Amino acid sequence: MKNVITLVVLCLCSATVYAQTATISGQITRLNDSPVSGILVHLLNWNEGLIAADTTDTQGAYAFSDLTTGQEYTVVPQDNQEVSYLQGVSTLDVVIAARIILGIQPPETPFVYAAGDVNNSGSLTTLDLVLMRRLILGIDNSFQNSPSVRYLRTNASFINPDSPFSGINYGNSTLLLDTDTPAFDFYQIKMGNLNP
Ligand SMILES: [Ca+2]
Description:
Elements: H1 2-18, E1 21-30, E2 40-44, E3 50-55, E4 61-68, E5 72-77, H2 91-101, H3 110-116, H4 126-136, E6 149-153, E7 157-158, E8 168-169, E9 174-176, E10 186-190
Parallel strand pairs: 1-10
Antiparallel strand pairs: 1-4, 2-3, 2-5, 5-9, 6-10, 7-8
Helix pairs in contact: 2-4
Bound molecules: calcium ion.
């Protein structure tokens, strides 16, 4: 009996020592840094199972607390606001995209480049220009292979800063939680709006 009690006490002590928790928090903003409120954010476990949900507040902030450390989590902002495809897309955006494609004006950020990839092919090409024109002219009312907005980690970068056409490292929305992780931030990218 004494051995059993000792074992139970040992187990409880171990649980106290190892079951540590931490918080993942961050903010969703537009490219002009204005916060986006009301965005549903899902937290998935290593098995892509939904374990928590939060909605961004007026500051665009979300948080998940009391998460067991030593495990992998993925933060996934949901496209729940039904932003019109046409919102923010004009001929000026087509001109900017054309200048990028022609090499006249390099994209200022990977996010501008990503916003132009409206067919979700991974690169910005004349095909994207065609689709943007068709949307502006009312021939299409959506981008078939892309939602109207996408969410990218703010630490996304060009794979080769000297050559935007080499592609984008989209950053990681999955992390192995070790300690409190603030500033796990996202940009809301309005597809087709290269001049936010
Ligand atoms: Ca494309």
